[in-house]
Amino acid sequence: MTLYYDRKLPALFTREEIARRVSELGAEINAHYAKSITGEETLLVVGVLNGAFVFMADLVRTLTVPLEVDFIRLSSYQDNLSSATKVVMLKDLERDVAGRHVLVVEDIADCGLTLNWLLNYLKSRGPASVRLAVAVNKKGRREFEVALDYVAFEIENGFLVGYGLDAARRYREFPAIYSLDGQN
Ligand code: 5GP
Ligand code: MG
Q1: Range of the domain at 69
Q2: In the chain, N or C terminus with fewer CB closer than 10 Å?
Q3: Angle between helices 15-36 and 53-60 (to 10 degrees)
Q4: pLDDT along the chain (184 residues), means of 10
């Protein structure tokens, strides 16, 4: 069965609600880094492709601290031998994170595997600090610990599309966030 999403259906989070939360997070982020980013330093904002591209574009436009952007692409897969879920890096960062203040921007924290892996990966490269911003925290699904610093929305569960999030590569362009399975 293919779920069909229609942008005219009621949204879980509307475009207006998203814009309001993104500006609130932006203000918090600006206040935090105003103290730690000084002189010629810049914040390195790392987006996790593909899902975070819309949130990242909105969020960086609310920031007034000097920054650079970079992207990493991660994917998780089921290892048949160990039956564990593993993370594979499809595209590495292009900037060196050593000594930098890094802000990771991700679409969703679900079971937490991806962000847990990314945090360990970044920390092994010696950044000055790492903070995490997510559009949606699916808090009922956490299996791997992740400390989230900036969260636009929280839900328990449910499959979301829109605002960068896809279902079988569709619906990323919808400006609001939709959940059709009513599990929230
Ligand atoms: P985790 O490793 O935290 O379980 O998975 C995180 C990744 O799974 C997210 O970065 C996102 O790409 C994908 N994901 C998790 N929940 C959803 C969802 O509700 N909708 C969509 N489109 N992707 C999701
Ligand atoms: Mg993702």
Answers
A1: 15-33+41-74+97-176
A2: N
A3: 60
A4: 76 97 98 93 97 98 98 92 91 97 98 97 98 97 96 96 95 94 56
